Amino acid sequence: MLSKIQAIRGMNDLLPEQSPLWQYFEGHIRSLMSRYGYQEIRTPILEQTHLFKRSIGEVTDIVEKEMYTFDDRNGESLTMRPEGTASVVRAAIESGLLHNQTQRLWYTGPMFRYERPQKGRYRQFHQVGAEIFGLDGPDIDVEAILLTARLWKQLGLTEHVTLELNSLGSNEARAAYRERLIEYFSAHMDALDEDAKRRLHTNPLRILDSKTPEMQNIIEQAPQLLDHLDDDSRTHFETLKSLLDSAGVPYVVNPRLVRGLDYYNRTVFEWTTTALGSQGTVCAGGRYDGLVEQLGGKSVPAVGFAMGVERLVLLLDTLGLVPGDLHQQVDVYLMAFGETAERQAMLLGESLRDALPGLRLQVHCGGGSFKSQMKKADRSGADIALILGEDELRDQKVSLKYMRESLEQQTLDVSELAPLLAERFPNAR
Predict the structure, then answer these.
(1) What 3-state class would DSSP assign to 342?
(2) What is the pTM of this model?
């Protein structure tokens, strides 16, 4: 017997019982992006490897350890995208979207990173993100945050997430601060773990993000970036906080928040939760004013964010915030008995779909007894079962049975069916 072929570790199937919750979440996203005037962009899964090395930074966990990289048949190094921002920037430059114009773009799709799979963190995972180009004021940073805050409100998550803010300052201020950090941590070499020592001269800001318990004391006493901001970045950050205060969005200033990608400057933010254990970040972003120029375009200010779909779906499920009727995929189940009735049932189903475009109607296929068809009607979750047999066919009628209510079964003319279902299911019209 041939052995079964299984899915690659960390790359999971999304089964029919799970997909309604994803569709529910994605529906909120699509509607919200449209309401804020954002346009969708779709980029390839495969990109040239140096796109990510140049944008994310070669001395990052993503580039060093996590990317799925291979040479194609022409010997060109390709990488399955580990995040979405670099691809969107590349597409915007290549297509001329940034020439003397602003853009509000959003995307969704799978990303790939080789790391230890765990609940809420997979090797193929999905992100929703937004990227805004051509605006350099704190007001657009606030809009990105307000958009995400509105999403949490719509999903019932507002009380379960916390907004954390920081400013990384200008590239020049960040470079000066970087030297201060190297000097500080060099004086505490004995307290650093191997990972911190390796990063000391290449990416010292990432040491601030270390979770090593033995290092927390020296990290807490390290110089703070907020004390070394340039004047423009300080004004930008203070205005951002003032606008959030005016909008009634609470936040926590976290001076250790640096984000894991090299392209960030000025505003950085994360939405975190304590409901998922160690997988606390559900959305993160910030400003990356130098990335467009870094990837070959003209200098354009930019800000964006990304959120993990798996984590947010898990959060909704964990907190019991899934709507009760979410898994009901069928409103009406149409049964038929006899060859002629089965043929007419198929035509009746199409007629009802023409009259009621939003009606979720499933026509039984495959024959079977009344008992077996009724079992399938019940299993479908439908509120109503329609019965078309020889008697109904002869009299041009349909029997209607209420599956979830103690109402009497009725028989009505075929012509009466669409108006009755339209009244019963208003969204079907």
Answers:
(1) helix
(2) 0.86
